[in-house]
Structure formats: structure tokens, C-alpha cells
Design a protein that fits this description.
This is Cobyrinate a,c-diamide synthase. It catalyses: cob(II)yrinate + 2 L-glutamine + 2 ATP + 2 H2O = cob(II)yrinate a,c diamide + 2 L-glutamate + 2 ADP + 2 phosphate + 2 H(+). Pathway: Cofactor biosynthesis; adenosylcobalamin biosynthesis; cob(II)yrinate a,c-diamide from sirohydrochlorin (anaerobic route): step 10/10. Helices cover about 30% and strands about 30% of the residues. By secondary structure, it is of the alpha/beta class. The protein has 2 domains: about 1-225, 3-Layer(aba) Sandwich (Rossmann fold), CATH 3.40.50.300; about 240-430, Class I glutamine amidotransferase (GATase) domain (Rossmann fold).
Length: about 425
């Protein structure tokens, strides 16, 4: 038995991530090993979770993972933890297709009690029908308690406690509004930037929530057995394959399970397109997504790295390039003003951040009889300067074909799609 629960909200921007980060850090300070998870495909929140908990945060996603695999991942990483906390995504019931892929679906699949974070800034007793609706919309879901955000006075909280008492749910306290614990955001959600001291913000959040949230009661009412599931083991490396993974401030959007699969195929080495002089000796290059648009000058002026990657690609090297990695392999990448910076130049693509529009959604790539799942989330736009060969067909979560291209030039596969191969490594067999 151990405390384990899912932190959710009626809608985005209710403050669930700040609360989660503060709670993770507070528990760490109590000497507890806490395991964080994140619902959905998000890369940014997991990095903040990992910083707050001093333990890697793991994604749980019912579109990209089968139910059996998701249970196994949860069981594997929860096994040695004292407390297990899963942060939801968007609103509790928001999924790619109705509830499919939602936080609620994951909570029911893992039988996790839900702690609802409600933005009560402009509400009092009217929270009663709101919470009541969330409690009774699906009888399989258990809402164990409620924390109210943006509540500045005890008298305001008393109205909210009365509402909880009348509908039969446990009030766990409130969080006053504070600019000191606000984490800056970018177009992909919370930001990752060297200009922000995230550790200090998380420390302040931990101290802030501990004053007005009943953390002891929260842990007491969420104790339950960890779901038992066969843990999938990664086989020892089957060969001496050398795998290079870009990992620095510009390229870091990777799933832990993807990296575990790579490690089962050989020796994984990380390198930096920003700081290193050249690509390591490698049999497979993985250029993950990230924020290359924030480091255009540095990427562009690292001429030796650009040249070594271009030579590797031109000589038939195996490459997986996702989103920012694909942009880096193109001819140029333009900032929000339209100023272009030379990139590697292997793919006949020009990418720009000017007049950017959001493209997002789950994606499924059909290649012959195989299907591979992932997600697309970017604001940049790519233009082909010459025709590039395409690989397979791409569909959204509702099964409708979409125009997102998957390029294959020689042994380079590149796309805006971030793929999850933690369960199905057939993507790697395309090489």
C-alpha cells in the first residue's frame, strides 16, 4: 500500500502543474522517493517533474500505448517508490476522441483516485454543481478530494468547504495566488529556458502549498495497492551497434522508454549539436525534437558539426529525425522575423517560425502492414525546395488521413511526428 493518485482539473490553466511540482518537491524534502508520471505525450512537464522529484518522470498515453504496455510501464517505475503521482492533461475528460486518451481514461485503467484542482478565483458555493458533475459523470471514476486554486482568504475557502461537505467530497485545502510560483510558458506549454531558475520556483511552490493544503490527509486518503502487471524487460544488447542521440538545450524531446529500446539494440551515446565539434562514430543517429529555434546562431555557426552530420547522411547513415531534428537537417531555419540561418542542408527543406500556426494532434503512420503511433505539435512551417520522397500514409486519432509528410531520403527518415517506439520497435527495423 502506498499513496498514489492522479492530479486533474476541469480545464487547462487551473494550476495543476504548479501544484504537482510543489507537491513533488515537498515530498522529496520529507525524505520520500516519489515517482512522477504525466498523462499524454507532453515532453516539457516531464522535465519539470524530474527536476522537482529528483526522479525521471514517465509518460502514460493510451493512444500511443496499449493497455497492457501502459500498465507494465506504471508498475515498473512505481515499484520502488514511496509515493506515486500522475499529472493529468488538459481537462479531466478531454481526449483525442471524446474520452479516448484522456486523464480520466488513464485513472480508470489504473484504478487511481483523482484529486481535482479547481480554479475558484471567481466562484464560491457554485463549485458544488461543478464538482458534483465531475464526480458523477462516470461511475467508474473516483474523485477522492478537491484542492482549490487562486483562493486568497480563509473566509473564501469556507464557502468552498461547505460545497464539498454538501456533495460528499473531501476538501484538501486551497492555494493562494502568487506570482512567485508562476512558471513562464511558451507555445508548447511550460517553458524550458536558461533564463529561468526553475529550481527556485519549484522550491517556492513547495513552501507555498504546504501552508494551506492538508498534505497529510491527501496522502492518507490515497493509499492503495500498486496495480500488478507483468513488467516488460529489455533484453541485453543484441549486438555492438553504436547509437548517437542528440541531447542538449536544443534537442531533448525524448521518451524514457524509447531510449530504453535503443539501449537494447546497442551502445547509446549522447552528444550535443550545439557544443560538440563533430558527430561521434555511429551506426544510428537520433535527432529528437526540441527548441532549435532558440539556438539558431549557435547551431548555424557550429560548422564542423553541420559538416560531419551532412557527410554521415550523404554516405548512407541511418537517421531518425523528429520535428526539431528534421528542421535541423534542412537547408535553413528562419526565426520569427524571417531571418534565415543555414542548417545541415541534407533535406531540401526551408523552415520558418514567421507567421507560425499551430499544428497538433495524434498521428498514426501506415507503412505497408505496419502502423506506428506518435504525435505532432509545432508552430513552424516547412517548405520543400525540391521534391522529397515520402514514406507511408499518415492518419489522425479519428482515422482520417492527414497531409503531414514523412520523408525518406536514402537512410534518413524525417518528419514532424514524434514517434513512440517503447512498445513497438518496428520503426527501427525500417533501416
Amino acid at each position: 500500500m502506498k499513496p498514489q493518485f492522479l492530479i486533474a482539473a476541469p480545464s487547462s490553466n487551473s494550476g495543476k502543474t504548479t501544484l504537482t511540482l510543489g507537491l513533488l518537491r515537498w515530498l522529496h524534502h520529507q525524505g520520500l522517493k516519489v515517482q512522477p508520471f504525466k498523462c499524454g505525450p507532453d515532453y516539457i512537464d516531464t522535465k519539470h517533474h524530474s527536476l522537482a522529484a529528483h526522479s525521471p518522470s514517465i509518460n502514460l498515453d493510451t493512444f500511443m500505448m496499449s493497455e497492457g504496455h501502459l500498465r507494465s510501464v506504471y508498475a515498473k517505475y512505481s515499484e520502488g517508490a514511496d509515493v506515486v503521482i500522475t499529472e493529468g492533461v488538459m481537462g479531466l475528460f478531454d481526449g483525442a476522441d471524446r474520452m479516448k486518451g484522456s486523464s480520466a481514461e488513464i485513472a480508470m485503467l489504473l484504478d487511481l483516485p483523482v484529486i481535482l484542482v479547481v480554479n475558484a478565483k471567481a466562484m464560491a458555493y457554485s463549485v458544488a454543481p461543478l464538482i458534483y458533475g465531475f464526480m458523477h459523470f462516470n461511475p467508474q471514476l473516483q474523485i477522492a478530494g478537491v484542492i482549490f486554486n487562486f483562493v486568497n482568504t480563509e473566509s473564501h475557502y469556507q464557502f468552498l468547504k461547505d460545497a464539498c461537505e454538501d456533495i460528499g467530497v473531501t476538501p484538501l485545502g486551497y492555494v493562494p495566488a502568487s506570482d512567485d510560483i508562476r512558471i513562464p510558458s511558451r507555445h508548447l506549454g511550460l517553458a524550458i529556458s536558461p533564463d529561468n531558475d526553475y529550481d527556485a520556483i519549484i522550491e517556492r511552490a513547495a513552501a507555498h502549498i504546504s501552508k494551506t493544503v492538508d498534505l497529510a490527509q491527501l496522502l492518507a486518503i490515497t493509499r492503495k495497492p500498486v496495480p500488478q502487471a507483468p513488467v516488460q524487460t529489455v533484453s541485453p544488447p543484441s549486438g555492438i551497434m553504436k547509437i548517437s542521440v542528440a541531447m542538449d538545450e536544443a534537442f531533448n524531446f525524448t521518451y524514457a522508454e524509447n531510449l530504453a529500446v535503443l539501449q537494447s539494440h546497442g551502445q547509446v551515446t549522447t552528444f550535443s549539436p550545439l557544443y560538440d565539434a563533430q558527430l561521434p562514430d555511429t551506426d544510428l543517429l537520433y535527432l529528437a525534437g526540441g527548441y532549435p529555434e532558440l539556438f539558431l546562431e549557435q547551431l548555424s555557426t557550429n560548422l564542423t558539426m553541420r559538416a560531419s552530420i551532412l557527410e554521415y547522411c550523404a554516405n548512407g547513415g541511418n537517421v531518425i529525425a523528429e520535428c526539431g531534428g528534421m528542421m535541423y537537417l534542412g537547408e535553413t531555419l528562419a526565426d520569427s522575423t524571417g531571418k534565415e540561418y543555414p542548417m545541415v542542408g541534407f533535406l531540401s527543406l526551408k523552415t520558418t517560425m514567421k507567421d507560425a500556426k499551430l499544428s497538433l494532434g495524434y498521428r498514426e503512420i501506415e507503412v505497408g502492414l505496419n502502423r506506428f503511433k506518435g504525435h505532432e505539435f509545432h508552430y513552424s512551417a516547412c517548405t520543400e525546395t525540391a521534391a522529397l520522397p515520402k514514406l507511408g500514409k499518415v492518419f489522425n486519432a479519428r482515422g482520417m488521413e492527414v497531409s503531414t509528410p514523412v520523408y525518406r531520403k536514402d537512410n534518413v527518415i524525417a518528419s514532424y511526428i514524434h514517434l513512440y517506439w517503447g512498445e513497438n520497435d518496428g520503426w527501427l527495423q525500417l533501416f
